[in-house]
């Protein structure tokens, strides 16, 4: 390549004074005068075919090297899935990923997210060992475990935000009964209430799973605890929610055996 480049330069005639870049033209956005812009100007002859061929071979070699590096990086990262295939959150991930018994995969699919949301009806604070038990088709590593724990953290955050929101609304309205029947006990969370509809839509969007009665009872208890704390002014303490968290943490129920199988349970 060096010999080809030197040989090509040897054919260039010496520059003359008129060939030097004009400073006025440069300031106007045209660094080369109009009479010098043509590629046929003797001071700027076209590259020889031999030199062009050498450059093409060099470009091809560099492109091949970059392609190999990208393939190697993709293999080391497991396809770039990270915690969820195609990204985080509910959107932008591969759909319809159901694996047979004995199969395992790195990363998490929308099916796993749906299954985790249904598990929240029973366990608000699952341990890492519990997660491994009920996701047998997942090859666990630090990233996957962290992602699952983060999911349940987000589920809890949504749950408590709704509890506080409706408790404050009830305290403002002075009518804490949330059901349609005014004779119902205060802050009863029936399946006909707006709060239940919001929770069911978030954790059971397709509505193909029967929400267990125990979850409704726990949600009602949490709602009353938030309401009582707000009514009594305990919410002025920055740590006022911790006692509610500790109470709900102890109320996890055993997850049904149907969750031990790959795929999303329906019931």
From TrEMBL:
<feature type="compositionally biased region" description="Low complexity">
    <location>
        <begin position="31"/>
        <end position="46"/>
    </location>
</feature>
<dbReference type="InterPro" id="IPR023082">
    <property type="entry name" value="Homeo_prospero_dom"/>
</dbReference>
<keyword id="KW-0238">DNA-binding</keyword>
<keyword id="KW-0539">Nucleus</keyword>
<dbReference type="InterPro" id="IPR009057">
    <property type="entry name" value="Homeodomain-like_sf"/>
</dbReference>
<feature type="region of interest" description="Disordered">
    <location>
        <begin position="1"/>
        <end position="46"/>
    </location>
</feature>
<protein>
    <submittedName>
        <fullName>Prospero homeobox protein 1 isoform X2</fullName>
    </submittedName>
</protein>
<feature type="region of interest" description="Disordered">
    <location>
        <begin position="68"/>
        <end position="99"/>
    </location>
</feature>
<keyword id="KW-0804">Transcription</keyword>
<feature type="domain" description="Prospero">
    <location>
        <begin position="105"/>
        <end position="267"/>
    </location>
</feature>
<dbReference type="Pfam" id="PF05044">
    <property type="entry name" value="HPD"/>
</dbReference>
<keyword id="KW-0805">Transcription regulation</keyword>
<dbReference type="InterPro" id="IPR037131">
    <property type="entry name" value="Homeo_prospero_dom_sf"/>
</dbReference>
<dbReference type="InterPro" id="IPR039350">
    <property type="entry name" value="Prospero_homeodomain"/>
</dbReference>
<feature type="compositionally biased region" description="Gly residues">
    <location>
        <begin position="76"/>
        <end position="94"/>
    </location>
</feature>
<keyword id="KW-0371">Homeobox</keyword>
